[in-house]
Amino acid sequence: MKMIGIKDLQVNPAVLTKSLESHEYSMITKHSKPIGLAVAFDDAIISLGLQKALLIDAYKNSLLSLGQLTKSLNTSKKETLKMLSLMNIDIIEYDFKDDLVYLDTFL
């Protein structure tokens, strides 16, 4: 999460624009105290609502586990898996390159 001081915004508002275009969350501060949160707008916010969209985004960025997402959404694991599947979101990230390295050592 990017921290942006209110004075920085006054001098250079593009710093917030760049953060939002990069889909980063930005904490706006005044005298080093948080006063707001800036979130990039996307279609998921409209279709899912802000809270659900933020939770799913946190899951996609590995900030929440599947269990934490399920609990936060107050749904069953089956319902969460179905929702992620319908949204074409990977449920398990698996890197086959690691397996290939281990296979090479065995061969």
Structure description:
By secondary structure, the chain is α+β, with helices and mostly antiparallel strands. It has a domain at about 1-40: YefM-like fold (3-Layer(aba) Sandwich), CATH 3.40.1620. Helix content is about 55%, strand content about 15%. It contains 7 helices and 3 strands. The chain has a 3-stranded mixed β-sheet with strand order 1-2-3. Helix 4 runs antiparallel to helix 5 (about 65-75). The longest helix has 11 residues, at about 50-60. The chain is extended and about 60 Å long.
Describe, in short, the structure shown.
By secondary structure, the chain is α+β, with helices and mostly antiparallel strands.
Count of DSSP strands? 3
Say what the CATH topology of the domain at 2-38 is.
YefM-like fold
Sheet bearing the most strands, described?
A: 3 strands, mixed
Let me know the average pLDDT.
86
Kindly provide the name of the CATH class of the domain at 2-38. Alpha Beta
Morphology:
extended
CATH architecture descriptor of the domain at 2-38:
3-Layer(aba) Sandwich
> Roughly how many Å is the radius of gyration?
19 Å
Decide which structural class fits the backbone.
alpha+beta
**Weakly predicted, low-confidence segments:** none
Q: Approximately how much beta-strand content do the residues carry?
A: 5-15%
Features:
107 residues, alpha+beta, YefM-like fold, three-stranded mixed β-sheet, 7 helices, 14% strand, extended
Walk me through the topology.
Layout: E1 2-5, H1 6-11, H2 14-21, E2 26-30, E3 33-38, H3 43-48, H4 50-60, H5 66-73, H6 77-86, H7 96-106
Parallel strand pairs: 1-2
Antiparallel strand pairs: 2-3
Helix pairs in contact: 4-5
